[in-house]
Amino acid sequence: MFRRILIFARTRFLRAEGVRLGMSTGAGAFVWAFQREAEGSPGNKMEEKALGAPGAKLTQIQRTRHGIVGRYENRIRQMSNPQKVFEYFATETDENGNPLMTPHDFVRSITPFGGRDSDLVGHLPPAPHSSPTIKPKLSPNDDMKAVPMIFRKLSPSGDGRLTINEYLLITTFLSLPASSFSIAFRMFDQNGDGFVDAKEFRSVLGMLYRHSPVSNSFRPQPKSWESMIPTPTEIFGEKYEKRLNPTKFAALLQEIREAVWMLQFNMFDENGDGTISAYALASHITSHAGQSQRERFEINKKKLDPTVNVEDSSDIICRMRRKRYVWQDFKSFHNIVDSVSQLEKGIQISAAADRPVTKSEFKRILKSVTGGTISKSTLDLMYYLFDENRDGTLDHKEFVDVMGEITAHGLNKHRDVGIQRLFACYTTCMKRGGPE
Asked: Taking Cα atoms as reference points, which of 118, 348, 162, 350 lies closest to residue 259?
């Protein structure tokens, strides 16, 4: 009985704070309200701290509430329809009051909460079009110079800001595995002439939208997806006279992926010096792990936090706590992630031949299958996270599962709990006259 009273009181508190602060979620208000009480009168500086900002250090109570909002936002990323995700993370509006996403908003919308004090959480209501935008910076590099060119090409205004249409376009492209770019081109090249024109681009994207888990959860479903598909003039020309060949098409998809990686790297670059810590990279990796894996990952990840004193002072942990990764390391890691399907086949062949996947064996497989290489520090971090019993061999099933989640950005999963699909199957079955 007493537990029920506490739950009821907490729920009423969250709702009341949500109304008082004019926020869309009680969870977001939870952190913001606490910050007001702890820090005094509100202001932009206080709001940045409440949301988590580069270099932020939170008390234990703040960290707990910070985590509550972060995990709530993960549920929004995983389960909400694209309109809600877009509106929640968008921080700007156009002249008609419609929400707009900056490239940094977009990256926040697909990057899971990693549990670090500096991870930004909380809903920021979009700033009016006529007033300057006030929002926390993702990193000291957060300015127009940091806006990747591909976002400017896809943006209707040319400044990198996205409408819901561009949001759906980019998420659809990101959901395509890098290993399938050539297959994707052949799908888009409907007449088989070796080029993709604007008409083919819109037609095939319409088919992809109808089968994409993200687009499929769009409510209400449009009668024609083609009406929502942008055709960027920067790519196809003002009169849509330009066409894409296989090389340019693959380069377009790769440019989008690398732009997202660069923005993620900037987001993890707390010092603005062009490097990220092993703790930041480990947080990025483990934030994509399943619930059953997360507890163990969390224990190991915390040992890499340079601000926390740990009892385990082994040589490898001390070395990783000091290690800083540059952009090229981060990019190379994601190229490995994008090759996870080929790596899985190589690892399975090694396992069938009774060859343990040690570090040297992993480097051999990587070189043989993809032609790529991996730095010693990145390899050490991967084995620290994915070698559970510390016998020097990779837990390849766990590794493949997590890497698969990273490369998909969570965009390949259905955005509902299954009830809608159950009823859809039931309806289809009834239309066909029941089970055969």
From this structure: 162
- Asked if residue 91 has pLDDT above 80, the reply is yes
> What whole-number distance in Å separates Cα of residue 119 and Cα of residue 62?
13
- Please, which residues have CB within 8 angstroms of residue 237's CB and are 6 or more apart in sequence? none
The CA distance from 247 to 151, in Å, is 20
- Secondary structure E strands in 288-397: 324-326
Q: Closest by alpha carbon to 164, among 61, 85, 264, 54?
A: 85
Residues 6+ apart with CB under 8 A from 376: none
Q: Rounded to 5 degrees, what are φ and ψ at 92? A: -135, 165
Rounded to whole angstroms, the Cα distance separating 49 from 290 reads 29
Whether 132 shows a pLDDT value over 60: the answer reads: no
Cβ contacts of residue 219 below 8 Å, gap of 6+? Answer: 81, 83
**How many other CB atoms are found less than 10 A from the CB of residue 373?**
12
Question: Residue 307: helix, strand or coil by DSSP?
Answer: coil
Q: What is the pLDDT of residues 147-194, one digit of tens each?
A: 888 998 888 888 889 999 899 889 888 887 776 777 778 888 888 888
Residue from 116, 124, 57 nearest 88 by CA:
124
Measured between alpha carbons, how far is residue 2 from residues 5, 6, 8 in Å?
5, 6, 10
Whether 42 and 29 have beta carbons less than 8 Å apart is answered as no
Phi and psi at 326, nearest 5°, equal: -95, 175
Between strands 324-326 and 92-93, the pairing is unpaired
